[in-house]
Design goal:
The chain is mainly beta. The chain has four domains: 29 residues; 185 residues, Pectate Lyase C-like, CATH 2.160.20; 58 residues, no CATH class; 235 residues. It contains six helices and 42 strands. It has a 25-stranded parallel beta sheet that branches. A nine-stranded parallel beta sheet has the order 23-26-28-30-32-34-37-39-41, with no helix packed on it. It has a three-stranded parallel beta sheet with strand order 5-10-16. The longest helix has 27 residues.
């Protein structure tokens, strides 16, 4: 055997050994789950490499390489697929579109820098019959592709600063002055910065059109195209996807949003954005099935890992929009929520496992949100082994009244105001949540379960949950809540507030804070509230019933 052939064989065997190791690790993540998870296999690619330099790419950060990326991907696809290699250097580009059987491999030391010229992103009709039919081309996209990947240790920077508006309240005075001096335009009230006057005017146009229920035309969208922010990675109706290794940062909008995709592996990626970046969600599987996300690090300005159970594609089998999802070994720093489902839940979600994750400094820890008109059935959700620290608002939140505000705004709602409305097919339903082995050191509210009077949140089981917070737990319009062996330690106020809820059991647990009141119950519908083996020696007063609560609504056993 020649030396050249020997080296090819050595490299091939080395790569195959790595693939086998990765596949075993993947198998471990999909084992011992509380539901049956389909077998996921990593995408495999032919041993055919294409280097973008061979097509004339220039790594100087000034030369636009959009056509080079397109030509390299097309040539590799025409040859039957393989790997498109992006070596070390700064590669300025516009949109990149992946095709089937392509692995876009960005090596360490490579920075894919997306252009600051918004005209480099064509105004297009969005594929797949999206609700917003027109917009800018996504930074990295694929449509109905099979067997695709983005791998390597490089960085994709979305140049989000040329697209996003910024609120003055989110910056220091020095940062605000620097931003205003950089260009753009400030709103009349001096509280918002926009990249351009057209972008600012477009937001007003869209709000007025929504209020007037105006049907927007292609011309309407095109006239407001400076406002239409693209996403960094957007795959639609794709199957067999792997994201492994890169850093995705500074997106104009969402960072990674696969929509109506199946068989998706996301691992070892970093997602970064300024904490003030609006709508900069990190990883948002939308109507996706058979998904595993692990070993990821996130620090962004909106939700961290968020399932969006919207409308499924015609090509997908009927059933829950988000199904068979595993999230493990991820760390989330700044984000509106560490792990989130919603706010759209109309497609439904089932069989979701989240375990062994750490959330530090997120606005909410575990966040499940929906609202009337946006709802579906969210069920069989399993949360195990979450460590949290310094959560800004709620450690654990189930909210059927989500109104679109930031977490600190949503947290100010009065939970005692309840008014039933007719049940429709868009009334959200949350049921069968199993949450255990949670530790949170520092939050505003420990637990909030905020259901609807016409359709309660049902069957919520919390085992071994330990939370130190400013305020205690709030349970409203729930049916079938169990807290077993929990430790809730509020700094002030009541440990538990139960509002129009029934079949609530608090069993054992540790409540060491010298609270003025352990349990306060509101509402004539509250009933069958049981305290089993709960030590109340530390509290000044055990139970208080509002005047319209039945005298026997609470039992101590």
């Amino acid at each position: 055997m020649s030396r050249k052939n020997y080296m090819i064989l050595f490299v091939f065997l080395f790569v195959m050994r790595g693939i086998a190791g990765d596949q075993k690790q993947l198998k471990d993540y999909l084992s011992n789950l509380p539901f049956t998870m389909p077998v996921l296999v990593e995408p495999q690619f032919p041993p055919h490499n294409v280097n973008i330099v061979e097509f004339g790419a220039v790594p100087d950060g000034h030369t636009l390489n959009t056509k080079v990326f397109a030509d390299a991907i097309a040539a590799c696809a025409k040859a039957g697929g393989g790997t498109v290699v992006v070596p070390a250097g700064t590669w300025l580009t516009g949109p990149i579109r992946l095709e089937s059987n392509i692995n876009l491999h960005v090596e360490k030391g490579a920075l894919v820098q997306f252009s600051k010229n918004i005209d480099d992103y064509p105004f297009i009709e969005n594929p797949g019959g999206r609700q917003n039919r027109y917009g800018r081309a996504q930074l990295i996209s694929a449509y109905k592709a099979k067997n695709i990947a983005i791998t390597g240790g490089g960085i994709f920077n979305g140049t989000g600063e040329i697209w996003r508006y910024v609120l003055r309240e989110d910056l220091t005075e020095l940062q605000w002055k620097a931003l205003v001096a950089s260009g753009g335009i400030v709103s009349a009230n001096g509280e918002e910065w926009w990249p351009s006057e057209k972008a600012m005017g477009a937001e007003i146009f869209f709000k007025e059109s929504a209020n007037a229920k105006k049907m927007l035309t292609k011309e309407d969208y095109e006239s407001t195209k400076e406002y239409l922010r693209p996403n960094l990675v957007n795959f639609i109706e794709c199957t067999d996807i792997l994201l492994d290794g890169p850093t995705f940062e500074n997106s104009p909008r969402y960072h990674i949003i696969p929509q109506q995709c199946e068989n998706l592996i996301i691992r070892n990626v970093n997602v970064l954005a300024p904490v003030y970046g609006k709508n900069t969600d990190a990883i948002d599987p939308s109507a996706c099935r058979n998904v595993v996300i692990y070993n990821c690090m996130i620090d962004v300005g909106d939700d961290g890992i968020c399932l969006k159970p919207g409308t499924i594609a015609f090509s997908q089998k009927p059933g829950p929009a988000c199904e068979n999802i595993v999230v493990a070994d991820c760390v989330v720093y700044h984000a509106h929520g560490g792990f989130v489902i919603g706010s759209e839940s109309n497609g439904g979600a089932r069989n979701v496992s989240v375990h062994n994750c750490v959330f530090i400094g997120t606005d909410v820890g575990l966040r499940f949100k929906s609202a009337r008109g946006r709802g579906g059935v969210i069920e069989k959700i399993f949360i195990d082994g979450i460590q949290m620290r310094e959560i800004v608002t709620d450690a654990i939140l189930f909210d059927m009244y989500y109104s679109g505000g930031a977490p600190d705004v949503e947290a100010r709602k009065d939970l005692t105001i309840r008014k039933a409305e007719p049940v429709t097919d868009r009334t959200p339903q949350f049921k069968d949540f199993f949450v255990k082995n949670i530790v949170c050191n520092g939050a505003d509210r420990a637990v909030v379960i905020n259901g609807l009077p016409e359709l309660s949140i049902k069957n919520m089981i919390l085992d071994n949950v330990s939370i130190t917070s400013k305020r205690g737990a709030f349970i409203a319009d729930a049916d079938g809540v169990q807290l077993n062996g929990c430790r809730i330690v509020p700094q002030s106020g009541n440990v538990f507030n139960i509002i129009q809820s029934r079949n609530v059991t608090i069993k054992d647990g540790i409540y060491p804070a010298p609270a003025d009141l352990f349990l306060k119950v509101y509402g004539e519908r509250s009933d069958n509230i049981r305290l089993i083996g709960v030590d109340l020696k530390q509290v000044k007063k055990e139970i208080e019933l509002e005047k319209n609560v039945k005298a026997d609504a609470v039992r101590q056993e």
